[in-house]
Request: fold
Amino acid sequence: MTRFVATVACAAISSVTSLSFAQADHVTEANSRYSSIEESRRSDLILLPAIAAMDPSPVGVSDHQRAMLIDPSSSLWQDAESWATGTPQQQALDALRQVTDTSDPRRAMVFAQPYGVAVSPDLIRARMYTELGDPPLLAGANIGYLDGIDELVKLIQVEATRLANIGEPGAAVDLLVRQVYLGRQLIDRAFLKESQTGFNLVNEALERIRDIAYVDFRNDQEISPTDLAKTIEALDGTNRGYLNPGRLMFPSANKIAAQQLWELLYEPRGGTRPGFATTMARLRTADRPLRLFAEASRYESSGGEQADWFQTRDQIDSVFDGWSSRWTLNPFDRQLSLPYAFDDLDKSRFAVITASTQDMSVLYQLRRVYETEIVGTRAALSLLGYYYELNEFPPAISSIRPRWMQQIEADPFNPNRAVGRIPALEYFVPVRDDYVADEHDTAQPHQMNVYAPGGENFSIMLRDDQFVMYSVGRDGVKSLAEDVSIDPEAVTGDYLIWPPMLSLYRTHLSETNRLP
Reply:
């Protein structure tokens, strides 16, 4: 079996190599985003070697959520803290600070590692690069450095908890702002998977910033108004600034990958070439080589069912341009509610497309959450700053202007934009702002039904010792924060900003003796 698999693999490589050497042009095209970036502005050259030198993370922080939830009272905390304070890990954090020291778009660093083996041998040995195979196929890109980024993010989360625990919540928040900037760099990468990772890093970091601020608010209140003001400014997403959604680039490499396969595997103006089955099997079994034979047989039998050269060319343009052409539209444009070409694609007949991408419309939802998290975090920290300076919650969200924010920013989910309206996020103080029909009524605490990530549901009662802030969410309806989640796909209910979902979930796990 081993010899047979090797034979089929060699046949695939030989077939593709003999068909065309043009694939190198496609790799060059995918790398064109980074060809003009000066080495002095390349964050990858500084960050990835430092990540490669890190020690493996301990079992207590095996994923992002556990790293965000872990508490100094946990039996696993000592190992996590020792790991975070180790020399290689602190050097990685120093590298992160170095590559995220500005939000000036003209000077901000760029994660510009090219795709393929045009990287240092040390990074290749550490798997901190994007492997394309031989011959190089973009559709088979194995983006290895993302595993290293994952380790760094776990480190950031543990270090943020450590800093807050020793009385430095301002430093913890500053570190999380660095994660926001790192995620911002990855959003502009050329592959869908990289862009998704970038959005997730930003959104997780923004929620964690609020979590650090909330835990401090409910305990020692050591974060200063100066730190809050600094963070609010660092997260400015207006005026075409670094975090402005209008500056985010749509990934281009997945379309180039499909075009590369189309040119390699189709006869001009005809059908598939003889190398179609073995090449597609290679892409499908990159991490499962023993399935190569079965996949090759499947594609061999389906080769005659594939769309022809013209149909495939047109569908590549239709599918990918259908996604990218809407990227610059107003978020409430009716076109965004229409199906994408990919939704109606006969995926069995257009294998070169399905081998090159997943559904890229997910980026639109991630961007909406990105906007909501930025607007919500800035507003929540502004309300907190108002409270720290005046020892009372503001009567309305508009009260934070202009001391804390130059202008009130719109709720990205709220469609009420007629006649230039700017619908703010919803804000109230429980009990204080409870509706009382007449003098016989008594203001009541606010009951909130919380739908946490992972399907965990619970209820809490909130009183006038804190405030509530939320977005109207996907349905665009103000539901008074009675049912809340942070699921942008939730059909009903509101998108919770404050109290932070992460803080509520950690408390719930602690109260039920399930906190890691």
The first helix runs from residue 2 to 19. The radius of gyration is 25 Å.
